[in-house]
Design brief:
This protein is mainly α and about 325 residues long. The chain contains 11 helices and 2 strands; from the N terminus they run αβααβαααααααα. The longest helix has about 35 residues. The N terminus is likely disordered. It holds the Pfam family 7tm_4.
């Protein structure tokens, strides 16, 4: 009996594509592949521009680079297993690979929230204290913020992922998605998972929700400052520097709320809807962020025009 338990517990997990639509997996993979390629090209181009263009060597664009790197990380973490399941029907994944993937997926989600908070801090300083902007947000300060955001996320997720290695897995080894998520894996554990159920809730409230509240409060203060500017043109100019960031915040938090509502209150919703919402959560923000900044930020537009050797309009 113990040896049989060991065999069951060490069996690889099985990833799942779109149940009931297996025959259409190749067709479903096409829009996903296009989205992945667009994300890689869009965020990769942003990173190249920020590194190559000296006009973009400012704190605002350094934080944008962190956002693009985070989005690339999420994409590169999920893409291999998703395409492997949809193209090759290769569903098996070892415990170590699964837990590592779950760690990076959840860590990068919190990193994204932290980077959006850092970008809000950047806009807050730029508008509330413009004369001291460059002395407050030095390159060293930006690096420290970036390291802090990554360490906060990495250390906060580590306890629940480490515990996954200790659990025996004696139930079905079939996961609900084509990538590993902590909440999926713990459902298969034959052990007391109370800590792994409660701790993520604490992390979400202590970090993601708190990040949003601080961002919201910072924009209240920014709006108060902008309304105190006498010139209408100067007001519009100040607010315009925040539009791209606000759009990215909405894209990220709306998808988070949408996914949360589907999981919490969509008990009667078809399972394929849950799976689709998960893909929306992991693909929509990384796809939209480069688009938003390319459309709304003149410096990025100018950099793209220079990159592709197109004449840049001065109007």
């Amino acid at each position: 009996m113990p040896s049989m338990w060991l065999n069951i517990s060490s069996s690889p997990f099985l990833l799942t594509g779109f149940p009931g639509l297996e025959k259409a997996h190749h067709l479903i993979s096409l829009p996903l592949l296009m989205a992945y390629i667009s994300i890689l090209l869009g965020n990769g181009t942003l990173l190249f521009l920020i590194k190559d263009d000296h006009n973009l060597h400012e704190p605002m664009y350094y934080f944008l680079g962190m956002l693009a790197a985070t989005d690339l990380g999420v994409t590169l973490t999920t893409m291999p297993t998703v395409l492997s399941v949809l193209w090759l029907n290769h569903r098996e994944i070892g415990h170590g690979a699964c837990f590592s993937q779950a760690y990076f997926i959840h860590t990068l989600s919190i990193v994204e929230s932290g980077v959006l908070l850092a970008m809000a801090y950047d806009r807050f300083i730029a508008i509330r204290n413009p004369l001291r902007y460059t002395t407050i947000l030095t390159d060293t300060k930006v690096i420290k913020i970036g390291i802090g955001v990554v360490m906060r996320a990495g250390l906060s997720i580590m306890p629940i992922i480490i515990r996954l290695h200790w659990f025996p897995y004696c139930r079905s080894h079939v996961l609900s998605h084509a990538f590993c998520l902590h909440q999926d894996v713990i459902k298969l554990a034959c052990a007391d998972i109370t800590f792994n159920r409660l701790y993520p809730v604490v992390v979400v409230f202590a970090m993601v929700l708190l990040d949003f509240l601080i961002i919201f409060f910072s924009y209240v203060l920014i709006l108060k400052t902008v309304m105190g500017i006498a010139s209408t043109d100067e007001r519009a100019k100040a607010l315009n520097t925040c539009v791209s960031h606000i759009c990215c915040i909405l894209v990220f938090y709306v998808t988070v709320v949408g996914l949360t509502f589907i999981h919490r209150f969509g008990k009667n919703v078809p399972h394929v809807v849950h799976i689709t919402m998960s893909y929306v959560y992991f693909l929509f923000p990384p796809f939209m962020n480069p688009v938003i900044y390319s459309i709304k930020t003149k410096q990025i537009q100018s950099g793209l025009l220079r990159l592709f050797s197109l004449p840049c309009s001065k109007t």
